Please model this.
Amino acid sequence: MVVSIGILHGANDLLILSTKEKMDKTFRKNLVIYVSIIILCVIIYLFSPFIAILLFVLLSSYHFGEEHLGETINLNFLFNAVYFLAYGLFIFSLLFYQSIFDVAEIMIELTGATFTKFQIETTLLTSAVFLLIGSLYLVLAKKNEVEIFVKEFFYLLLLFLVFKTSSLVLGFAVYFIFWHSIPSIIHQIQFISGDLNRKNILFYVKKAMIYWIISIAGLLILYQLFPQIKLFATVVFVILFAVTAPHTWVMHKMKN
Model:
């Protein structure tokens, strides 16, 4: 699921940039920023793998929150950013808490260190408090209907059951594909083409296909170059971190 829909959902970043920025000079400027973010991420990993994975979690948390709640929560930039970040951190910490030993194994393999149980529990509790206070404020200030947050509560309850009854990788894949990637693809198609229909879906897939093929071929080549699973996992994470950061930036520009 991750190497099909997951990769596909991030394959049209440059098309989104060119759609949003019609002027050639502006597009070239954004392309330079996009590539610079990738280079910066690689440098950060070389400097400190632990900081890199921490930034990856923080960026992904904000991105997940913005994608899932961007059309629902719209108060001001600061409130939105904190709420989106809290939502994503709650998802990650909930997943990590249910698979703490698997998380430790992967973290130690990638960075030589790991998140402690206390850190995960603190993040889970803190993010839950922020979500609760923020949701109550939005309801009391009549910015959103209470039904929206009741529905989100049951979504989170469902995710808890998914995470509790599956492995770390499967639990993340279910969330990443069905809660994030598919809705993101729908929003991207609507942004690029204006409407969600068969023709526009095929156009999106066609534009993304070359990047998808390159990504899959790249993974296969990397696996041949780095047959040791530890080295392979490290290289894949560096690539994942390096493309997640600019993708988060592009999606933020698209939604704002």
Remarks:
- The chain has a mean pLDDT of 89.
